[in-house]
Design a protein that fits this description.
Its main location: membrane. With 411 residues, this protein is mainly alpha-helical. The protein contains 17 helices and no strands. α3 crosses α6, α4 packs antiparallel against α5 and α11 runs parallel beside α16.
């Protein structure tokens, strides 16, 4: 295996994650068509969307445990083919029940991806390149979100809502078959072994309860999970409500509201996540908490832009706010898993990602409902702006965690 293969792994997983997000995002662009064809209410459409989120969160912890017990390659490729077939099945849905079942199965299949893929990447990439690798991988999240929403909307308008699901599902199955011959399973803890730091890690597998106890035995892990819940809460609000917010407040058309709500934020996040990867790897060479420092910068610097996004009456300022929030969100996102892997053992990495992803998505699932309730009392503008306080709180919490639980400059 060539020394550059570890970057080919990033390249391959980039496309898997691209379809992970394109498949989950596509349905939101065709909600109006589904509503008309199947005579669905807004509440029913909300349940269709929530079915994915709650099942995804519910199986996240289990997926993490499985990822530390079984080959990651099998889970990644098997998950890709499974959720791609479910995506094709979504196109065959003829009623509300079919849609809910397909979205739930989609959440089940996709739940296994991140724990397995992040564990696998950490075994290919040591602390020298881990943030860069994960930040490049993370850029596929934003690309997939944009592609899923845009392609589904365009194809739905001109060729029917079913077509984009056939397209994304078919390409996902094809990719899975191709990767069977190219994606290789690394040794657990391989990166640490190659750095001669494996003596710091116990690679012996114990029972599940012991592994979970090991993951949460460090206070900094609890802090990272809490911060992730807060950051995911805010991100879910922007993804769910920003299109409707722009449509109502700025009298944009539905198509323009959808474009402006996603494009500026997601494209800025691509730049932010790449910057965050390079900055974090640089800081990690000098500080044990270098990746977390990068995350805290992203959180604290994003606060004023979140406030402006909800408060401004000017479209140009709104665009600046979305770009600013997106960029600094990317700084945080680039190191979500890399920071976690700095403080958990290689044999527990999938378990750690699974639990953190599960808890974070439960928090994110509350956000759309909470902001809808708050907006009835205080208005959507004030409610969105108020979430900047949550970003500030979790940013400061992370700073406290770094100073208290992470060692200071490396010698």
């Amino acid at each position: 295996m060539s020394k550059n293969y570890k970057w080919w792994v990033v390249f391959m997983l980039w496309f898997v994650c691209f379809f992970n997000y394109a498949d989950r995002q596509a349905i939101f662009s065709v909600f109006p068509l589904l509503k008309q064809e199947m005579s669905l209410s807004d509440i029913q459409l909300g349940i269709v969307g929530a079915a994915f989120m709650w099942v995804y969160a519910g199986f996240g912890a289990i997926a993490g445990i499985v990822g530390d017990k079984f080959p990651r390659k099998t889970l990644i490729i098997g998950g890709l083919i499974f959720w791609s077939l479910v995506t094709i099945g979504t196109a065959l849905s003829t009623n509300y029940v079919h849609l809910v079942i397909c979205r739930a199965l989609e959440g089940f299949g996709e739940a296994f991806y991140f724990p397995a893929s992040m564990s696998l990447l950490s075994d290919y990439h040591s602390k020298e390149t881990r943030s860069k690798a994960m930040s490049f991988h993370q850029s596929s999240v934003y690309a997939g979100t944009i592609a899923g929403g845009t392609v589904a909307g365009f194809m739905g308008q001109y060729y029917g809502w079913h077509t984009s699901f056939y397209l994304f599902g078919g390409l996902g199955v094809l990719l899975g078959v191709i990767l069977l011959g190219f994606l290789k399973e690394p040794v657990r803890g391989q990166a640490e072994i190659e750095e001669n730091t494996h003596v710091l890690f116990d690679l012996k597998q114990r029972n599940i309860s012991d592994n979970i106890k090991q993951v949460f035995s460090k206070p900094i892990v609890w802090i990272l999970v809490t911060v992730f819940v807060g950051a995911n809460f805010v991100a879910s609000i922007f993804l769910t409500w920003m299109p409707s917010f722009l449509y109502k407040k700025f009298n944009m058309s539905l198509s323009m509201a959808g474009l402006n709500a996603t494009f500026y934020l997601q494209m800025a996040s691509v730049l932010g996540v790449i910057s965050g990867g390079f900055l974090a790897d640089k800081l990690a060479k000098r500080y044990f908490g270098g990746r977390m420092i990068t995350q805290s910068i992203g959180l604290l610097m994003g606060v004023p832009f979140i406030f402006l996004a909800g408060w401004t009456l000017s479209i140009p300022i709104l665009i600046v706010a979305l770009i600013g929030f997106g960029y600094f969100k990317g700084l945080y996102d680039a190191n979500i898993w890399a920071s976690l892997h700095d403080v958990v053992k290689p044999k527990n990495r999938a378990t750690a990602v699974g639990f953190m992803n599960s808890i974070g998505w439960f928090g994110g699932g509350i956000a759309p409902i909470a902001i809808a309730y708050a907006s009835t009392k205080y208005g959507m503008s004030a409610s969105i702006s108020a979430t900047s306080v949550l970003y500030l709180i979790v940013g400061l919490l992370l700073i406290v965690g770094i100073s208290k639980f992470m060692k200071q400059p490396k010698s």
